[in-house]
Specification:
heterodimer; A: alpha/beta; 10 strands; B: six-stranded mixed sheet; two-stranded antiparallel sheet; 11 strands; globular; binds zinc ion; tRNA N(6)-L-threonylcarbamoyladenine synthase activity (chain A); acyltransferase (chain A); transferase (chain A); ATPase_NBD (chain A)
Amino acid sequence: MKILAIDTSNRPLSVAVLDDDTVLAAITVTVHQKHAEYLLPEIERLLAMADLKPTDLDRVVVAAGPGSYTGIRIAVTTAKTLAATLDIDLVAVSSLETLAANVPVEGALVAPMFDARNQNVFAGLYRIAGGVPTPVIADAHTNITDFLKAVTEYAEPVWFLGDANHFADLISTTVSAATPRISSWLNLPQVATIGLLGQQLDPVADVDRFVPNYLRLTQAEAEWQAKNPNKKDTESYVEKI
Amino acid sequence: MAVIEDGHKILSNIVATQIKSHQRFGGVVPEVASRHHIEEVTLCIKDALDEAQVTYDDLDAVAVTYGPGLVGALLIGVTAAKTVAFAHNLPLIPVNHMAGHIYAARYVEPIEFPAMALLVSGGHTELVYMPAENEFEIIGETRDDAAGEAYDKVGRVMGVNYPAGKTVDEWAHQGHDTFNFPRAMEKDDNFDFSFSGLKSAFINTTHHADQIGETLNKQDLAASFQQAVVDVLAEKTQRALADYPVHQLILAGGVAANHGLRERLERDLSSNPVTHLVKAPLNLCGDNAAMIGAFAYVAYQHGVFADATLNADPSLEFDWVEDPVK
Ligand SMILES: [Zn+2]
């Protein structure tokens, strides 16, 4: 099975192509954040290196959020369009889970997080079980202090990944159990790992309806919800004319 | 999404509108608009191909709007188009949205050069001179609000749902120009427009009436507003046509569906021996992909292609004319 994996959830642009368990090629760029311009050219380069055509692909795996609005939008649009237009599988993984998968320690508790500003984070807690991250605390957009309190309840060493160093002081004062020191490359998405994860997961049932997992409402939506507490945001707002 | 043959035959033209979403928030919320595009993009591609009864093998190129517009919305189109072009090894044609609006007129008749376009929409009000195919030069544009924007603002004041253009147009036909609002820059020696003074005069008039408890006739208000807009647009267009004797005047953009404006230009142009009026078809005045395909055919023949680095350009503009005729 030929798999293309894509992650542009945050600053790094990361793409890989795999043939079953074999990583054929992988590219990670962290020096700029021009995902709109460079995602597709990097995919072209990647497939060319692996001597593959787009039509050789069997599956696209994408880190579908949370993360930067623009980043996950571009990754998801590219991935779903590619899957739809080639009529192949689309698999979505959590952008936080893909970071958690960087920790190869069976049984470890891993807390990947992205800085969402104003003391907020996108974060989740995972346990590595059978070599894959399984959710313990679901991914959420949350206050960092609340999240750390919840993590502390487990009274176990926790691997903090991602933007955790932005909150190093807070982590050291809140979390009593030892937190393993990690090398900085573990904070980057290892997109080959995403490909491997995506091999084991079920494809998205409805590719056309697939959207990024933003994990937070826009300001306009939040205000609308506050003004209309009894209404549900389930209406369809798009019509064909 | 549309499938277009040879730049003038519509095989399919799928338009998904988010007006309900805009109404929910009282306007466009860029983040939400972008998400709706992600929800619809692959379905619309499929629908466009199905309705046209073609497959990817039948296509010669993929064309996409890359500007101007909301960056979040443009990015979805550009990203999807690049991906389809890459997946099926098709050339990619970048299209200026405003060139697309002008080329809606191609579905009425072939464009003869030199030509002039009066482009009126929610984001733009400009006069574009086209000396030859694939050449666009702005000779005048709004200094402040676009005409469509002014329609939406006065519509809001009168309690009309967004977008307000159609209702204001209807009311205008039932009323009379009794308020005599200012015609900005009508006599100035340039081809530029301004609508903010008109908008303020309108708001002041209604505000003052509210304060003294007077109820104004909405039909007359709409008629007076529309007459001022149409006078300014028509006057500047006449002035431009006097300096640029073109074969065609093309009326295009969302506000080109306005009946008051269409009728006025028809009257103005009926006695013009040099220039005849080409109005974009009513159903192709608003944003659609058929118009993008019409211009893409021209771009294709001129060898205008983009590579996979194509990015959205939210403030894309035609060049200004280098040597304005004065
Ligand atoms: Zn438009």
